[in-house]
Amino acid sequence: MGFTLSKAKQRRILAKNMGRLWSFFRAMLFVGLGFVLLYPVLYMISVAFRPVSELSAPDIVWVPKTLTLSNFRDVFKVMEVKTTLFTTVFISLGSALLQIASCSLAGYGLARFDFKERKLLFAVVVFTVIVPMQTLTLPTYANFRQFDVLGIGFLLEKITGQSIRPNLLGNMLVYFLPSAFGMGLKSGLFIFIFRQFFKSLPMELEEAALIDGCGAFKTFLKIMVPGAGGAFLTVFLFSLVWHWNEYYYSVMYMGNVKTLATALASLRLSLRSIGVEIFDPMALVTRLQSGCFIMICPLLILYIVLQKYFVEGVARSGITG
């Protein structure tokens, strides 16, 4: 007498097998996507520590037989890493902290205060995210060339007959001043993130603080800021990374002050000064990959350390509300 399974049990077995097949397919998909995303980083690390003689060896694909630091020595000398690293850290960290302060206040005001022009101001904030930086280059350059506030310096020049408008080009203030007033790199996006986060918080928190005698600013500092750690960390990391990698802004307004981004961009031609032939593709690619590794290594370490909190912050800020 043959043994047959009931239709219900057959459906359960089929569903179980389909679930296993989907899990396998999903795992393979993630592995493939992960490899595509990580391939440039893996290639960079492999080539950066590889001698030039092993770059074209047919039996070496990923792991070199010998490791060398000569590529990094050349890059350190050409990029002036000690100076450019300090400059980049100072600009990125200072701008990120200033953006946190200015954008959080702006986002809190747009989220929690009801005034007539609120929607219009928020639309302007969103519009600043859309406008390309290149369209603001000429007016921004002219403003930094002869820095003035509301035309006051121009009027004083007419009265005194002396030039009193300072030239900020080549000064780190070209980064710090816009960041302090909510007009730095991607400030519109950061205001949006803070606005969405603060909007999702319950109104009862502010009402309780108001009953206890707290004003608007004290409520922001004592109630809102401690509970917005995820949003602050998200904005801090985004701002730090964008300022760290910024090339266009540095070239236009920083003049001869080098950052890691500008030094890396000119690395190809700078290698001539130490006798590296830039037309030798093998010698060139090892130095370029070493420069890229130096550029992103601090950011990789920072992300690995703060990955858990960063993901939580992204999940909570700018998505709800």
Strand-pairing-aware structural class: mainly alpha
> How far apart lie the N and C ends?
64 Å
- What do we call the CATH homologous superfamily of the domain at 80-265? MetI-like
Low-confidence stretches: none
Question: What share of the residues does DSSP label as strand, in percent?
Answer: under 5%
What do these coordinates show?
With 321 residues, the protein is an all-alpha fold. The protein has a domain at 80-265: MetI-like fold (Orthogonal Bundle). The chain is built from 15 helices and no strands. It has helices at residues 7-48, 70-79, 81-112, 118-130, 137-145, 152-160, 173-180, 187-200, 204-211, 216-227, 229-245, 248-253, 260-265, 267-270, 281-316. The protein is flat and about 80 Å long. The chain starts with 6 loop residues before the first helix and ends in a 5-residue tail after the last helix. The model has no long low-confidence stretch (mean pLDDT 82).
Short description:
With 321 residues, the chain is an all-alpha fold. Helix content is 70%, strand content 0%. The chain is built from 15 helices and no strands.
Q: Can you give keywords for this protein?
A:
mainly alpha, 321 residues, MetI-like fold, 15 helices
List the helices and strands and how they pair.
Elements (H helix, E strand, L loop, with lengths): L6 H42 L21 H10 L1 H32 L5 H13 L6 H9 L6 H9 L12 H8 L6 H14 L3 H8 L4 H12 L1 H17 L2 H6 L6 H6 L1 H4 L10 H36 L5
Helix pairs in contact: 1-15, 2-15, 3-7, 3-8, 3-11, 4-8, 8-11, 9-10, 11-15
